[in-house]
């Protein structure tokens, strides 16, 4: 069976998990403590980063974008998450780059990095200024999600695509930490409720860490 080396609160790992579930591909999760920099893991990915997918034939793939596009190509499950024509693919890839890059850099890195990763990497205590900046940036991005969802059936167009999964992966991480005031972002909330109800989200919503519990509404499909 294919194996996915992951970290439970890595948005990139979550994105791959969502694609695997949407494509109905069997896989086994292997938690990887990247801060330990295990030699066995570095042989799979010298960058020392998750996610890493080891496919059934022994093929090893690194980088979430590479993995997700590979999975979309090898699966016959419809719809294609990267679209069916060049214009669709261009818009989907633009939004995936937005959430993987801009959103992660301006929001997730700030909040996850300060609240949790500093603890794991023993690099100090949370910086309240950085946390405040992350929450401020999150509001801007949630407004953009709401703007997109007002004009489209899903974020990139008429059907669910990789853009929605990339966004959901990031949003689910900061929602786990309780850093979203959903009452101020009703259209983004409508979108998130919709994707949250998909079967592919069930395992994500079941994630728990005893020393770092989720927000009270994290797994609720109808939430405040």
Automatic annotation (TrEMBL):
<dbReference type="Pfam" id="PF13417">
    <property type="entry name" value="GST_N_3"/>
</dbReference>
<dbReference type="InterPro" id="IPR004046">
    <property type="entry name" value="GST_C"/>
</dbReference>
<dbReference type="Pfam" id="PF14497">
    <property type="entry name" value="GST_C_3"/>
</dbReference>
<dbReference type="InterPro" id="IPR004045">
    <property type="entry name" value="Glutathione_S-Trfase_N"/>
</dbReference>
<dbReference type="InterPro" id="IPR040079">
    <property type="entry name" value="Glutathione_S-Trfase"/>
</dbReference>
<dbReference type="InterPro" id="IPR036249">
    <property type="entry name" value="Thioredoxin-like_sf"/>
</dbReference>
<dbReference type="GO" id="GO:0004364">
    <property type="term" value="F:glutathione transferase activity"/>
</dbReference>
<dbReference type="GO" id="GO:0006749">
    <property type="term" value="P:glutathione metabolic process"/>
</dbReference>
<feature type="domain" description="GST C-terminal">
    <location>
        <begin position="85"/>
        <end position="214"/>
    </location>
</feature>
<keyword id="KW-0808">Transferase</keyword>
<feature type="domain" description="GST N-terminal">
    <location>
        <begin position="1"/>
        <end position="79"/>
    </location>
</feature>
<dbReference type="InterPro" id="IPR036282">
    <property type="entry name" value="Glutathione-S-Trfase_C_sf"/>
</dbReference>
<comment type="subunit">
    <text>Homodimer.</text>
</comment>
<protein>
    <submittedName>
        <fullName>Glutathione S-transferase</fullName>
    </submittedName>
</protein>
<dbReference type="InterPro" id="IPR010987">
    <property type="entry name" value="Glutathione-S-Trfase_C-like"/>
</dbReference>
